[in-house]
Design brief:
The chain is α/β, with parallel strands linked by helices. Helices cover 43% and strands 12% of the residues.
Length: 302
């Protein structure tokens, strides 16, 4: 296992560039449907601990699964595989970068803090010649009905105090602090998802926007949404990635926002100029989800 124990920017920069390049290709080839290829309805996780990956690791593992056609979302490192007596990695297999971000203090000045990335080489369980299933965290093969999954989302948003009103289109407005959603019956089944999944995928997108105001996360791109095209594109990218993350948590197949077609070229340009954009957007999307999980309403309900 190779670990970057120091702040080695070249390694993390290479990872960011590789993932950004893959996103650019997907956006160019699929346009507004770029998320459909990598959105996973079952979250990727550590095969031993069951830790569900977050942030940029959702992107790296999901894309690896898409590219290799794996069905099993569990990953582990070589040292971890040896501890459970797994076989060798299949010859020719490529690792998937699993990145962890921490903040460290300056040894000479405790008031100064610096970011540190550790990049682990992960392998999907399908990449080993043999592996003892009893040593792995079991996969939950039971898929609740869409009714149960929808009820879970409704409960989640209700406990968070999200106010949803009926409207002709989907939106979040800071003026009234409400999410507007068309009637669920206006959504249709598609080749990729049910009408209900299409409805909730749209709702989860607006739910990420809901975290943007100053009384919640005070996200810079949200504040400048109506003043800057760049900020608007950034906020929409965060909301789109965030809705994929939430969809994975609730087992909802993600469907792309049709109105985001206007931002695809902006996203491509940003990724080409600054590959870390997709990582920072994923980090902001993850923070939005963490805000929901840690907000007072959720704590009181626990």
């Amino acid at each position: 296992m190779k670990i970057d124990t120091d702040i080695k920017e070249p390694r993390i920069n290479r990872v960011q560039k590789e993932i950004a390049d893959k996103f650019i290709i997907m956006m160019k080839e699929n346009g507004i449907k770029w998320t459909a290829r990598w959105a996973q309805p079952r979250p990727c996780q550590n095969a031993i601990t069951g830790h569900v990956y977050t942030g940029s690791n959702v992107l790296t593992t999901a894309i690896a699964m898409m590219e290799n056609g794996w069905d099993d979302p569990r990953f582990l490192t070589i040292p971890a595989s040896r501890k459970i007596g797994a076989g060798n990695v299949i010859k020719g297999s490529k690792s998937t970068p699993i990145c962890f971000f921490t903040v460290v203090e300056d040894k000479n000045d405790p008031t100064k803090k610096y970011p540190r990335y550790k990049v682990y080489n992960g392998f999907n369980v399908a990449q080993f010649t043999s592996i003892d299933e009893s040593q792995l965290v079991p996969l939950n093969e039971h898929h609740p009905s869409i009714h149960i999954r929808s009820r879970n989302i409704d409960s989640f948003l209700d406990r968070a105090g999200v106010n949803i009103v009926k409207s002709q289109s989907a939106f979040y407005t800071r003026a009234t602090d409400k999410i507007g959603m068309p009637d669920p019956t206006t959504f249709l089944d598609t080749d990729d998802a049910t009408a209900s999944e299409n409805y909730y995928s749209t709702l989860l997108h607006e739910t990420i926007h809901y975290t943007g105001p100053s009384n919640r996360m005070d996200r810079g791109c949200f504040k400048e949404y109506h003043n800057s095209k760049a900020a608007r594109a950034e906020e929409e990218l965060i909301a789109e990635i965030g809705s994929v993350f939430l969809g994975s948590i609730f087992g909802i197949q993600h469907t792309p926002r049709e109105d985001n077609v206007a931002y695809v070229q902006s996203w491509i340009k940003n990724l080409e100029n600054k590959p870390s954009t997709v990582f920072s957007a994923a980090a902001e999307a993850n923070k939005a989800i963490e805000w929901f999980q840690n907000c007072p309403h959720m704590v009181q309900a626990a």
